[in-house]
Every structure is written in C-alpha cells, then in structure tokens.
Amino acid sequence: MTPPGNAWNELSLSEDPAVALLQKLGFRYVAPEILEAERESVKVPLLPSRLAKALKKLNPWLSDDNLHKAVRSVGAVQSATLIEASEEVYETLVHTRSFEQDLGDGRKSHDVRFFDFDNPTNNELLVTRQYAVKGAKKTIYPDIVVFINGIPLAVIECKSPKLGEAWKLEAIDQFSRYQELDDKYRELGAPRLFETVQVLIATCRQAAVYGTVTTPYRFFAEWKTTWPMTPEKLRALVGREPTAQDVTLAGLLAPQNLLDLVRNFVAFDPDRDTGRVVRKLCRYQQFTAVNKAIERARTAKKPDDRGGVVWHTQGSGKSLTMLWLALKLRRDPLHENPTLVLVTDRKDLDAQITGTFQACKFPNPERAESVRHLRELLSGPPGKTVLTTVQKFQELAATGGSSGKRAARKEHPVLSEAHNLFVLTDEAHRTQYGGLAANMRKALPNAAFFGFTGTPIDKKDRSTLSTFGPYIDTYTIEQAVADGATVPIFYEGRLPALRIIGNTLDALFDRVFADRSDEEREAIKKRYANEQTLAGAPKRVETICLDLLDHYAKAIQPGGFKAQVVACTRENAVLYKETLDRLHGPQSAIIISGSNKDATHLVKHHTSEEQRTALIDRFLAKDDPLKILVVCDMLLTGFDAPIEQVMYLDSPLKEHTLLQAIARVNRTADGKSYGLVIDYWGVSEALTEALEIFAPSEVKGAMTPKSDELPRLQARHAAAVRFFVRVKDKDDLDACVAVLEPEDVRAEFDAAFKRFSQSLDMLLPDPSALPYVADARWLGKIRQAAAAKFRDKKIDIADCGAKVRKLIEEAVAADGIEILVKPISLFAPELEEKLKKLKTPEARASEMEHAIRDEIHVRLDDDPVFFTSLRERLEQIIEDRKAKRIDAARELQRLEDEIRKKIRARAETAATLGLSETGLAIYGLISERKPLTAAEKTGNAYGKVDESKKELASLLEEQLEPQVSLVDWVHKDDVQREMRKRIKRQLRAAGFADDKLDATADSIVDLMKRRRGR
C-alpha cells in the first residue's frame, strides 16, 4: 500500500491523475468496497457476476451450466506455476474455449467469446484502486487495477516522484512480491491476481515503464507513443502538457489498444538458456509497425501499394515483429484466410524464424524443405504459412518439370495469382537479393510484399524501396539505445602499426617481413603482396593475439562476458584459433564453412551442423568455459548472443555487412552496459567513408569512438562528488554518510554513482580513466556504508561493473573499514565494535536507530502486538531527539534500555509468563492494547498480565498443534478452515464479541503460518 510518508505525493501527483485519465479513455471508476461486496472472497480476483453478464451478452446462446464453466475456466485455473496459469488463461481469453451445447442442430462444440475485440465499447470497462486480493498469507492492495468484462487485465503501481530514480526499483520490486517471483517473497503476495493480468505499469508521473507477468526488472521498458491517438488529442484530453505517465497509459490502456495488445501482441517463448517459458509483450515500435502495415494493406488504393519496408535496427525484436504481423494478417477478415510467405536469405535465419514461430505456437507454419516442396505449398489451397529461403525462387527459374531435370526457362513460373497473399521478406536489400525480388514477384504477381531489415537502406539501394514500397516504420540505432532495447557500441582501434587499411601495403609489408632478406622479401612481395596474405602473416597474427588476450583478460572477462574474433579468410581464422591455443588463451572454438576441396589444415576444423549448434549453445551459456568464437563469414548476421560483449575485428567489412556484424555486441544482458568493437584492420579509420552511403540520421550512434566516453566520465564524476561538496573533512565517513540520510537524496546519489561507475568500468584499464579511480573508491565506500547504515536493500555493490566492484572491495579491505560498510543485525556481536568505531554520538545513535528499525521490520509478523508497540516507542524517541528534548547520547541510552533490551529479553518474558514465544505472540493478538504506564515500560511490553488471556493463548496454541504439524499445511485450505473453526470456538467460549471472531482467527492463522509454516 501507499507508504505513509509519501502518501500525499504518490496519491495526488500520480495515482489521482492516472485514474482521471483512464476515466477519460472510457473506463468507469467503481470504488473497491463496491466490487468487494460482489466477490465471494477477497481471494478471488475475478468479478464473477460481471464476467457472467458480459459472457451472456457476447454469447447469448450459453446455457447456465456452460456459463458457469466459462467463468471457472478463467477464475479457477489449476497450474503448478504462475507462468503456466498465465499461458492457460491467455489461450482461453484469446483463442477462445469451446463448450458442447445443443443449439437446435444437435450437441456440438461452440466457441465462447470473452471480449468483443472488434468493438471495445461493447465491453464493460472498469477501473478501481486499492483493490484487495488475499494470497496465502498476505492481502495485497495494488494502487490501480483495470478490468474488462470483470477480468483484471492491467495493474498499475504509482510512486512518489520524490523517490528519485529509486521509484522504479521500488515499484517493480512490489510487482515481484505481489507475484511471489522469488523465494524471499513466498506467501507474501497474491499470484492469482496475475493469472489474467496482461500489462504491468510502474509510474511516478514524470516517468513510467511497463512489463507483463513475470517480467524481470531489466526488461521493463518505456512506451513512447499514443498511436493511433495523436499527441495533440492527448494534450486536449488531459488539458495540459502530457507527462510520461499520460503517454504510457494512453498508449497501452486505451481500450482499443489494450484489446489489440492482448489479442495480437503476446508471445510465450522458451528461454534459450533456461528452457523456461517467458511471456513477452511487444515494444511500442513493434506495435506501431505492425498496425501501420495492416493499415496500409487494408487501405492502399492500388494493390501494388499495399507493401513497404520496416526498418527496425538489429537487436530490437525483428523476428517477433514479423510474427505479430503475420498473426494479425491471418486474423484480418478482410483478407479471407490469406497465405503468408516468410522469406529469408540464409538457412540459419530461416531456421531461426521457423523456430520463433513454432515456439510461439503460431498456427501450422510450414518450412519449405526443397524447391519442389515450395512449389507444392504455394500452388495448393490458400491459408498456409510458408517459410522459405529466397534462393529457392532463384532455383525455381532453372528447374523444369516434376522430374527436376535442368532446362532453360526464360520466365519464372507463376505459382499463385491469389490477391490475399502476403510476402514478409527478412533483410530486404538489393545487395542481398539482387534479381530474386523480381523472381518472387513473377511467381506471386498479386502478392503484397513487406520488407524487413535491421540496417538502413543505403543511398545506392533505393531500389529496395521501389521494390517493396516506401518505409512503413523506422526505428533507428539511436532510438534503440535510448530505449534500452540495445546497448551502445563503442569502437577502439588498436595496434596501428599492424593495420591493413590506413597504411600503405609497402610500409606494412616491410614491418611484417623485417626479418627476411631483401631477395626473400622481393619474391614474397611479387607473389603475395595483397591484403589477405599480409593479414595472415603469422608474426602479425601472433602480435594481435597477444594484445587481444591481454585486453580480454583485463577489460571483458572480469564481467563474465565473451568474445568473437572475425578474420578476413578461413585460412586466417584457422591461424587465429591455433595461435590462441598456442598462447594458452581461454577456451575457444572456430566456426567456418567447409568445402570438399579444402586443404588438410582446414578440413580438421570442419564441423557438422549439429556440432556447430552445440558450440553455439555452449558459447551462449554464461558459465560454460568456451569464451571465444573465431569466425570468418559465419555468425556475422542473425546471430543473437547477449553474452558477447566484444568483437575483435580483423576483416575489411563495410556498409551493410559492417553494420550487421558489429550488432552482434549490441544485445542487452545483466551487467552489460555497452558493446565493444576492437579494430585491428583499420575499419574504424574508414568508418566515416563506410557509412557515408547512409543518411546521417539513420546511422547516428552506430559506433562511437571509445575516446568519446572520457568527457562523459568527467561529467558523471562531477555529478557524483558534488553531493559531498559541503563536507569539510572528506575522510570523515560518518559525515559523508549523514548527507545521504534523506531517502530522496540517497536515491539521487545512487543513480549518479551508477552512471559514474558505468563510464569508469567501460574505460578501465585505459590510462585515461586512472585519475578517477581514487574517487571511485571513496564514493564506493560511502555508498556501501550508507547501504549498511540505512539498511537500504536497493543499494548493492553487485550492480557495479566488475572492475569498479573490485576497486571498491580492495579499498574497503585496505582501509580496514569492513565493519563500517557491512549491515550488522541488532544482536550481532560486531554491532558493539561498529558503534565504537563511529566517531560521534549522533552517528552511534543513528546506527542503533536503523538497526532497531530493521529488526522490527523483519520480525513484525512474528509478534505484531509486541513489535508494533516497540515501533511506536522508537518513533517517540526519535521525535524527542528531533525536538531537542534529548541529545544524541540520551537517545542512544533510551534506544538501548527501552527497545533493544526488551527485544533481547522477549524469550525471557515468555518464560516468565509460562508461555512459548508463539504463545506469547497469540497472547498479544487476543489482548486489548492499552497505552503503557511509565512503570510498565520498565517491565514487559504487554503491560499487566491478564491471567485468563494467558491461559487462552496457551490453550489455542495447544489446540492448533495437530494442524501445524501436518506436512505442507500452509497450502491446504481445508486444514486452515479447521484451524479457524477451532480458534473461533475457543474465542466464543471466552466471551469474544462475534464481530471480532473472524478477524482475530485470521490474524492467529497468519501468525502460525509465519512462525510454524516452514
């Protein structure tokens, strides 16, 4: 629920405007107490009566029995995990559920519609706030819940803008707890709510991010468009300049958009590393691209104008965009069961897209295994989804008849004249396809062609636009980096004396063959003086490998990432592999194409398709010792490897090939803030020339010189140190930490430090970064000490890069202040040592205060009455100190006498009363709390003992012992019902009022779950 200290900010600045906008978008606000009265129990998130009413409206033929079954199919899912339940419910809501019923023509199966996807206003649209849902142990209260037809589809968590950048972590952490995504949240949430939920939004008004069920923190992203609503219309709707929150809510939750997202933009895809199913929701650029393509296909005045080009930079989810466009084209009734053809230019891309479609359960995709198979598929009945390589169209032109014999053919055969045929072509460039696009058009003369590419169309390749049509949507390199969809790519030229481009061949030749005689050098020059031969000189490759291994060990390996080496020829690739092995480098593998004519030294490095797949899987696995892949022309495009951070480039790549290759390092991964291209060929020197064929705006940010990071490091350093400008003695750790006591200041500093450490980690071990190392150590110590003192779990050294993390750890060890930067519990022996090391009474009192606060927070549920009373006493002591009624020394004494000693003596108090610690907690729950007198404050925290209540507490614990001794009782509703019955029976006999029985029984069962549930 809303934290009391931030209630006003959170409520008025974020939650109220969000609800107001949702109402303007068409949702009707209904108070939570009204909705709660409609529900059988707060354990049921669904609004059954509203769903039943909507189902009857959309499916008037439904019998009462089938209506009940339809409601249960959404509200009573039996699945082992949340993701399984989410997928099952999604299949029901979107792909419908069939029920048998006699409608006058015999008993047959009929599909039930849960939403009217085509007419959003034909559904019941509701929004509420603080919607209670009870889980196994806790009741959660999400800030805002959005319903369609009584089904919760979106949950919004609002935070105060005053939290700084910490708002996002706090909100998403709350989603994790609600969904119980981690063992630490076991029984602290209500996962059932999220079985039907499709969208999660975290917002603080000035910023907002979204995800879906089970989305990890790093995949929450911004939604930056209100499409199809114009910015002007949103401005008029809210009556002011729209905030990021307004854009996100209007873009995702406008009823038309929300239903479109639910129906057409969700995928359940197995994770390559873990094999676990991941639920995916589209990004904003995928949503707009697909819908713009659909709009063009529906409204183009001429058949030839129905297609176009979607340019979304590599790493931004192009395969899924193609999937969702195909899915939406298939569902569009205007096209009457269309045929879809997905075309790639390579077998590996064909396999990749086929795998994506199959994994996401796209209906019956068929992969053309041969030229003849492609012809059969396209010549047959409509409605198929065919996946093929473009080369099969080329081969068709030279293939005659069913016998497959070669025969001259002047015209490409027509395979289908259907108008409801759509071709989705991957990497649609003239340079890749040449005349094959024309072949496809001859084979499919009435088809609409959509071209997808991860690189921009170059100035010489505008024929691509004339072939496929104008741009439908663009998503540039710069946009992807800004959105966090990809990481920025930096480049660094190394070993300039050995570069191929940018130096004359003569100069390089003389350097490489300096150890040969004049006669030998002249003979070599006549026969071998070309770029490839010079690049493969063993001495040159050895020098590069020595540099490469040193760089990898110092700059990349500490972060746990991997590398790719790109050679200009297969022979050179083999030389790199053998040299890396000879120099005892990390484990590496070579993946190159093979030929029957290859020499022996190449043949021994040939691999089968299965072997290549196994090597790639090993490379992609973070913990596998295979660290480096050596390639020539394979794995330069279409290879998705988040684990790869650096590409060592020794090949003359240019234009599209260069852009595609370097994008291997732009994928996001935990702890990865950038990709790096180390250039040994000289490509970076010719980069401007190589990219001149593209429009400047389209390739902005393609590769940034690593040296450009230095000014950013300087600025980020200044931003981090400015927090302590007023601290006179910078070595006074207590004084520096005190600056960060306000939560919003601490959040701002933490964000500034992360940015500084990110830049420093990228540049190290470059000498230009060395002047900032001392301050990184100093700031890191302050950050760690603040995290320990304020028990701030949002601050963790693990979120720094490996190199900066090591600097901080070394600094802490060297200064001997480990104890000051370690969170120590209230009763740990080290706490006294830590208090002694603190320099001032204020610092010691503050340390004790936060240790007590953390102890109470952790143990509050163990004994709510006892620890609530201590929390109130803590706040009173702090208030006395702030009002200067007591000084810091007296505050420390009171914290020790009135709180710490009471917590330590709790077990002794229980023994004195003749109760177990559990019995003492029950005693607190059934006793009426009264303000403690001054005398009672020196005794136990429960005041004067009520003997009858003490006996009742002991009896209740004894009565519940058989149930809590059962295996896994916390997951058995029947056992808990029996427990409540026994508790209420004893309470009633003891004279408890009827209106208190249910709440007290629930409190005692929750207490037993906490104390005896594991």
From TrEMBL:
This is Type I restriction enzyme endonuclease subunit. SUPFAM superfamilies: P-loop containing nucleoside triphosphate hydrolases. The keyword ATP-binding applies. Belongs to the HsdR family. Residues 299-474 form the Helicase ATP-binding domain. PANTHER family: TYPE I RESTRICTION ENZYME HINDI ENDONUCLEASE SUBUNIT, TYPE I SITE-SPECIFIC DEOXYRIBONUCLEASE PROTEIN SUBUNIT M AND R. GO terms for molecular function: endonuclease activity. It comes from Sorangium atrum.
